C-alpha cells in the first residue's frame, strides 16, 4: 500500500527527541479551533479552520512535544458536512500514524461542541459531540469527570479500553479535564478542587472551557477570585472559550481562537502556547512561548454612496470600480486556498438606495469574488434614510 501521509511530505521522518529525556516535557495548548465554521458559505474559508488545526499538529511535530491540549470548541456546532469531517479524520489518522501515537491529543467539550443553533430551536443536551466520535475512534483523548461522584471517583484515570476518563498522566504531568460546565460553573469548582490530588513531584494541568470576567468587554466570565482557591492544586489552568488571548498571574492561560471566527476576532491577539516544563532540583520551571498561527488575511473597506443611482447594476458597478482601485496592490495570481488572498469586510455608507436599486448582498458578494482577488465578502449596509424618502413616508 502506498502511504500518502500528509505529514510525511513536510517532515522527512519522525523522531520524538523529548522521549529521550525525562527532564523536559513539552506541550502545545490550543483552543477554539471551531472546525466547521463557514462550511455552508465558502469552502476555502471553511478549509482555513482545518488548516489552522493542521498547523497546530505540525507545530507539535516540529517542536517535539509530548502532547497537545485543546480547551474546547474544537468544532463550531454539531452540524458538520461529511467532506469536512472526512478531512479531519484523515488528518488525525495521518498524525497518529506518523508520530506512532506518541503525541496524544487531549480535549474537552466546549459549548460549541455540544450546540446546535442553525435551526433556531434550542437543542437539548443529549450527550452527543463529534469529539466523542473522534475519541471512540481512538484519535483523541476526550476527558470528562463525573462531578456527582464521591470525591475520589470524580476524576477516573483515562482507560484506553473503554476510551473514558477524567485525567491522564504523561511523564510527570497530570491533565485533569471536564466538559463545558455552563455559564456559572462556580458550584462545580469546589468539587473539582477537592478531587484534584496535589503531589510535589507532579505538575497539574486543569483543562476548562470558561472565560474570566474583565478579559473581554461585555462578555460574561467567572470572577478571578472564585478561581483562586484552585491555585494550590493547579500549576497550569488551561482555558478555552474567550477568543482573545490572555495570561493571568503566571498560572491561568487562554490562547484564544486559532482562526478568526468572526470579524471581531481579527482584532484580538490569538494563537497557541508552546509550554516547556522542566524539573530543577525539587521544583518545576515553566517556559511559555506564544506562537501566532498563519491566519487568513483580511481587509476593511468603506464606500460612500452619496448620490442616487438609476438601478442595481449601476450601484454594483460603482462599488466594484471603487474596490478595484483600492485593492489594486493585491496579487491576482493567488489561489483562493492561500491565506494571503484576503477576506473583505465591506461597509457601505451614504443615503439608502431606493427600492429599485436595493443591493442584493448575495449577488454582490459573488461578483466581487469573481472579479477581484478576494476569497469572501461580508457586507455591512450602514445607510441613512434620505430626507426625500422620509417625506414620502410621512405623506403616505
Ligand atoms: Mn469558542
Protein described:
There is one protein chain. The protein is an alpha/beta fold. The protein folds into two domains: 20-291, Purple Acid Phosphatase, chain A, domain 2; 298-395. It has eight helices and 15 strands. Strands 4-3-2-1-11-12 form a six-stranded mixed β-sheet, covered by helices on one side. Strands 5-6-7-8-10-9 form a six-stranded mixed β-sheet, with no helix packed on it. Strands 13-14-15 form a three-stranded parallel β-sheet, covered by helices on one side. Helix 1 (43-62) runs parallel beside helix 2 (82-98). The longest helix has 20 residues, at 43-62. 33% of the residues are buried.
Task: Name the descriptors.
396 residues, alpha/beta, 2 domains, 6-stranded mixed β-sheet, 15 strands, binds manganese (II) ion
Within CATH, the superfamily of the largest domain carries the name Metallo-dependent phosphatases
User: Helix coverage percent of residues?
Assistant: 10-25%
Q: Architecture of the largest domain, CATH level 2? A: 4-Layer Sandwich
CATH class of the largest domain, anyone?
Alpha Beta
Q: Ranges with pLDDT <50 over ≥5 residues?
A: none
Amino acid at each position: 500500500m502506498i502511504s500518502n501521509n500528509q505529514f510525511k511530505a513536510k517532515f522527512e521522518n519522525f523522531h520524538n527527541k523529548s522521549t529521550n529525556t525525562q527532564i523536559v516535557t513539552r506541550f502545545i495548548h490550543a483552543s477554539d479551533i471551531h472546525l466547521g465554521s463557514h462550511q455552508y458559505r465558502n469552502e476555502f474559508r471553511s478549509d482555513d479552520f482545518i488548516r489552522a488545526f493542521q498547523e497546530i499538529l505540525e507545530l507539535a511535530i516540529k517542536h517535539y512535544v509530548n502532547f497537545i491540549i485543546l480547551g474546547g470548541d474544537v468544532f463550531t456546532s454539531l452540524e458538520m458536512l461529511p467532506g469536512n469531517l472526512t478531512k479531519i479524520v484523515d488528518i488525525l489518522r495521518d498524525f497518529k500514524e506518523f508520530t506512532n501515537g506518541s503525541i496524544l491529543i487531549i480535549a474537552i467539550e466546549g459549548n460549541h461542541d455540544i450546540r446546535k443553533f442553525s435551526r433556531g430551536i434550542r437543542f437539548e443536551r443529549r450527550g452527543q459531540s463529534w469529539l466523542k466520535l473522534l475519541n471512540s475512534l481512538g484519535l483523541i483523548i476526550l476527558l470528562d469527570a463525573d462531578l456527582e461522584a464521591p470525591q475520589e471517583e470524580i476524576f477516573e484515570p483515562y482507560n484506553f479500553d473503554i476510551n473514558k476518563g477524567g485525567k491522564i498522566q504523561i511523564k510527570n504531568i497530570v491533565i485533569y479535564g471536564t466538559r463545558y460546565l455552563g455559564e456559572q460553573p462556580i458550584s462545580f469548582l469546589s468539587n473539582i478542587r477537592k478531587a484534584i490530588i496535589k503531589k510535589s513531584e507532579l505538575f497539574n494541568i486543569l483543562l476548562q472551557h470558561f472565560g474570566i470576567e474583565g478579559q473581554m468587554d461585555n462578555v460574561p466570565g467567572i470572577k478571578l477570585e472564585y478561581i483562586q482557591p484552585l491555585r494550590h492544586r493547579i500549576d497550569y489552568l488551561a482555558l478555552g472559550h474567550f477568543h482573545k488571548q490572555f495570561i493571568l498571574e503566571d498560572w491561568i492561560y487562554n490562547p484564544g481562537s486559532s482562526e478568526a471566527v468572526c470579524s471581531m476576532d481579527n482584532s484580538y491577539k490569538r494563537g497557541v502556547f508552546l509550554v516547556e516544563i522542566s524539573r530543577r532540583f525539587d521544583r518545576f520551571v515553566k517556559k511559555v512561548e506564544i506562537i501566532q498561527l498563519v491566519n487568513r488575511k483580511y481587509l476593511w473597506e468603506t464606500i460612500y454612496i452619496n448620490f442616487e443611482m438609476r438601478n442595481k447594476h449601476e450601484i454594483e458597478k460603482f462599488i466594484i470600480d471603487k474596490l478595484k482601485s483600492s485593492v489594486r496592490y493585491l496579487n491576482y495570481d493567488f489561489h483562493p486556498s492561500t491565506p494571503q488572498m484576503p477576506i473583505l469586510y465591506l461597509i457601505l455608507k451614504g443615503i439608502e438606495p431606493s427600492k429599485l436599486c436595493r443591493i442584493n448582498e448575495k449577488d454582490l458578494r459573488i461578483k466581487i469574488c469573481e472579479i477581484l482577488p478576494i476569497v469572501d465578502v461580508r457586507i455591512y449596509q450602514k445607510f441613512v434614510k434620505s430626507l426625500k424618502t422620509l417625506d414620502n413616508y410621512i405623506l403616505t
